[in-house]
Amino acid sequence: DDSLLWGPYRPNLYFGIRPRISKSLSLGLMWIKNVDSKPDFEKLRHTCEQSDGMAEYGWSMYDPRTGGVQTISDPGNNIDLTTEFVKITDGSQKGSWGTRVRGSFRDASHSSNVSLIWYIFMESDDTKSKPNTLECQKGAGPAGVECHGYSHGLDSFTIQSPPVRTGDAAFLNVQGLRIPDNQLWMAKENFVKIHKASRPNSLASHQTENNVYYVEHMFSRDFEFDILFTPSQSQKTMSANALTEALKQANSTSLARFDAAFRPKSPFDGAQYSKFSQSLLSNLLGGIGFFSGSSLIDTSDQSKYEEEAIKTSTHSVNEHTKPELGKPVELFSSVPSRPVFPRGFLWDEGFHQLLILEWDLDLSIEMLQSWLSVMDERGWIAREFILGPEARSKVPYEFQIMYPNHANPPTLFLAAQAITQIFSKERPYHGRASKYLKNKNLADQVLDEIFFKLNKQYSWFRDSQKGNASSAQSADVYRWRGRTSQHILASGLDDYPRPQPPSLLELHVDAASWVDLMATVLRDMARSLGRTDSRVFEDQRVTIKASLDSIHWSPESRAYCDAVPSGTGFSQVCHLGYVSLMPFLLGLLDHDDPKVGDMLDLIRDEKKLWSPHGLQSLSKSDEFYGKDENYWRGPIWININFLAIQRLLDISQKEGPYQARARMIYSELRRNVVSTVYESWKITGYAWEQYNQDTGAGQRTQHFTGWTALVVKIMAFPDL
């Protein structure tokens, strides 16, 4: 889709533009304060970092098909920036894009100036007969810059940066370099090296062998400049006026579409909540990236060392591990957090898509197809995709290695479930017009493709995570692989308490719950497609649910729990919290199932999971509550609270014994969760990875506009 070709698809940067084409063009932005005419390199900004001390940054409005506006407030460099980006998707300038950079000094009384550097680089592609090229030079007359180049997938293009219209550009320099491809991503480090070596001189226009160019402006007053991209096939050159008009149109259209898809409902129908909601949604959409490269994958026989790994307390690589770079892949994905987790995570992505698919169904399907394309021939999808040296530079070595027998919560099934419901008109859709909703044959075709891939993942999961059922009443029991004494990263709930001491015979209720969900979704997809094998998945679903009830249900705790062998059967090991709710959260219990009453009791118990700020991850009464790493041992997580609110809403709208109570809890929990995220955002300017169960304060990773953005949908839920 041409409208999705370009975007800020380098979300780890404060501003980074690239196409969805490997080995192609990239553009980035850096800035730095100069003191006594010398740059303060400690404050050179490029990649999003929590340590930079930004007052705030992020997209106030963004649509992946048109563009949007981002603001960056940087007290350390005494500058506020606005970066606007827009794409032309039709007419005589189709395929063009432009960005406008504005800067204003926060405190004009300070006698300092700022260097604003934008750069472009071109990767080589030895697989093509025609080489990629790039050449930039200063324009004639007033300072401006013009670049010409060619890249496979883009053809020929021109990039222009007209003379600065405001401010006082006391200095402009264009510096070209030839840098090895595997170091091009190190734009900040390379810039510092050449700057410290000597003040570079402007390049002559005949130097054509460079693959990276730095364009440096120095400003002491407020400024504004444009960067304009025109492809060779465009009939008209991109201009500043066209950029201005396109920006106005993009923002107007995005506001109208937001109102249709996600208008907050009472009591969150005030203007402040609309602004809050637009910000979270825009930052989720503005965090979509395109990634390419290879992952480190262990190629050893995992069965040789799994017995050893379960006895350890760390994830250190042992002598059996044989990490090798896998085949190169491409991934079109959103990210949990631009500064800390700027890459694709399987556990997170399904939750992200629950929002994206209601904004733009076709975009969501394209992203889902991208994720399914990185599945291996057996059906395994890695926990996360750390592709290439740039991505690996942010991750400790022991966490870079992916293990092909380790699973992760298969949340892509949540997205597939919603898509199936939209196709069958069981779920309302108010997003962008979809080609699939206009053409049933096309919808059936893509649903069949998704079904085929997800069925493969389902089969792999059932085989690879199968539990020891020798003492069980059913073969449908499961255990996450890759456990250490304190963690199961594969479960997504890292340090959530599990049976002690660890055992290869233990069974995990959340793993079984995800398998039940997979079977349910595949059954519904098969029915929608008119397939004859829908009954197979229904039979499997019934068997798995029977295992959940017979093996994982604790009559004493009135909750679902992990299980361990005991005599000729199993006993439950209960650490009440998110794991105990999982069959309820995933919609595996009928609305009138007696266990629903027990789930509501657990949710609303103030001595266990209930807090004024949302559902805690672990019961206050648990011996491990708040202990050690305290990651999933008390703090509030929005993705799980979303599942709870969604399920409570469903029960609230069906006649039955728990309707009234579910409605009451739904209203309370919805209000508590939204207020928690909103109040923290109002104070800090950010959404957070998790929230303190005692104070409601956001904590750990900031700018976590991945699944925390689900409060956008929670606000759009009805007020009952």
Automatic annotation (TrEMBL):
Residues 3-210 form the Glycosyl hydrolase family 63 N-terminal domain. GO terms for biological process: oligosaccharide metabolic process; protein N-linked glycosylation. Cleaves the distal alpha 1,2-linked glucose residue from the Glc(3)Man(9)GlcNAc(2) oligosaccharide precursor. This is Mannosyl-oligosaccharide glucosidase. It is found in: Endoplasmic reticulum membrane. Belongs to the glycosyl hydrolase 63 family. Its main location: endoplasmic reticulum. Its EC number is 3.2.1.106. It is a single-pass type II membrane protein. SUPFAM superfamilies: Six-hairpin glycosidases. GO terms for molecular function: Glc3Man9GlcNAc2 oligosaccharide glucosidase activity. Pathway: Glycan metabolism; N-glycan degradation. Residues 240-716 form the Glycosyl hydrolase family 63 C-terminal domain. PANTHER family: MANNOSYL-OLIGOSACCHARIDE GLUCOSIDASE. It catalyses: N(4)-(alpha-D-Glc-(1->2)-alpha-D-Glc-(1->3)-alpha-D-Glc-(1->3)-alpha-D-Man-(1->2)-alpha-D-Man-(1->2)-alpha-D-Man-(1->3)-[alpha-D-Man-(1->2)-alpha-D-Man-(1->3)-[alpha-D-Man-(1->2)-alpha-D-Man-(1->6)]-alpha-D-Man-(1->6)]-beta-D-Man-(1->4)-beta-D-GlcNAc-(1->4)-beta-D-GlcNAc)-L-asparaginyl-[protein] + H2O = N(4)-(alpha-D-Glc-(1->3)-alpha-D-Glc-(1->3)-alpha-D-Man-(1->2)-alpha-D-Man-(1->2)-alpha-D-Man-(1->3)-[alpha-D-Man-(1->2)-alpha-D-Man-(1->3)-[alpha-D-Man-(1->2)-alpha-D-Man-(1->6)]-alpha-D-Man-(1->6)]-beta-D-Man-(1->4)-beta-D-GlcNAc-(1->4)-beta-D-GlcNAc)-L-asparaginyl-[protein] + beta-D-glucose. One of its GO terms (cellular component) is endoplasmic reticulum membrane. Keywords: Endoplasmic reticulum, Glycoprotein, Glycosidase, Hydrolase, Membrane, Signal-anchor, Transmembrane, Transmembrane helix.
